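U., I forgot to send this yesterday:
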Amino acid sequence: MCQLPYDESRCVGDVMTPNPVTLEASATAQEAALAMREADVGDVLVQRDGVVCGILTDRDIVVRSDADGRDPSSTMIGEICSAELAEVSPDDSVPDVLRLMRDRAIRRLPVVTNEGIPVGVVSLGDLALVRDPSSVLAGISAAPPNT
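Result:
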């Protein structure tokens, strides 16, 4: 199990944003945008039959749906989410997750249990708050949202 004070053995479960927003792949882009607004987050985990199959960000909605003129009320998020998914466990170490994010150029990762249950999302901002709390990214990540 992970240690609570920061050191190189700290785990993702200690730093992730818990309770991710999840939607079925058949939900629409509009439903996803509303869920993101309501939860004040920039991503949702996409599921098919209760299994995480993708992640959708606010940017994905703009770039893969809006920019193509797709109707957000009929575009299913399973069609526009990032489906080549890397997942991490709450027990994975922060250094290992940082390496994975760097090697694959990933900004956010779903955190799932060994049983496949989504329990959080870990972002570059989450990791910056832990690794370098005085960094610009940590400051931005800790700031209250713009409304």
